[in-house]
Amino acid sequence: MNIVIKKIDSQEIYYRPDTTLTKESKDFFAPDGCDVSNISLGVAFKIDKPGKYIGRDYIDRYISTAYLTLLIHPIFNSIDESNINYKIAINSVDNTTYLGSKLFEIGNHPSKLTISVDYCQESNFRDYIYKQIVFDIDPIIDEATECLINLSKHTSFRIGDLLIIQLPTTLSLSSNNTVVIKGDLPQPLFCFDIK
Questions:
Q1: Other Cβ atoms within 10 Å of 139 Cβ, number
Q2: Count of domains for the chain
């Protein structure tokens, strides 16, 4: 399985191995030397059929469903972030790509996506922080479409591959955090601790 991540409104594309993927809200245990973890929201599109040289008119045959995704990037203070090996390492830490439940079907999607993020800076829940983030859906789908068309000129996609559009919102969280992320549904999409 390939996990391809494209930052929205950017030309940056990177890959993660499938060992980083978790489908449950498991707690994240930060590696030694990691003081802070950056958490980015993303919208994942699961590839429905194998393809290469995918044309714009056929895009709906290849992606049909979107999922909320969290991308955790551990930050190691003692390592030079400009080092390419560092960038490879932080994108390869196991259990750092959280795949949530289905958000919407393409073609039958809302115009906007509202995500609520609650987190605490201390284990005793004194410093409780709440953020509500609203995204337009169409630019996210357009970005996924363009990325899939362009990448399929150079690589083949398989059933189950994930194309993730990384959204611009990033949370920097230290250890001893409880993170709860909700959508328009009453039950949380994600609920986990950073330890």
A1: 12
A2: 1
